[in-house]
Amino acid sequence: MTTTITICDTCKRPDWADRGIEKTDGEALAELIEQAALGVKGVKTRRHSCLMGCGKGCNLAIQSPGKLTYVMGDFAAQTDSAEGVVEYALAHHASETGQVPFRAWPAAVKGHFVSRLPVLEPDTE
Ligand code: FES
Asked: Which residues lie across from 3 on neighbouring strands?
């Protein structure tokens, strides 16, 4: 199963208004992640407007059916962040459960985890 990186494209960092730019930080980060994920087998990206973590933007989620979901935040739109997120997503893809050992975490994602969600089992009723 593919691992999907869902990137909030409406996130704005606290200094966004001061920078006088039109593009949101989320859009800028999404572009960098999309570029970093180009040609990476097993990882795809999508954008979503607001993941409801607005105070800690930029936010994203790493998901795959049947695996743990990870929500991350407080990213700036930087190439090293984007590359680290894609590297983490690739490790999530390679993992049977979605759990990635700490020793395999790219430096760029450390300190950015917001939550981990367990697999949602299908209804049996
Ligand atoms: S605007 Fe990105 S989480 Fe709300």
From this structure: 43
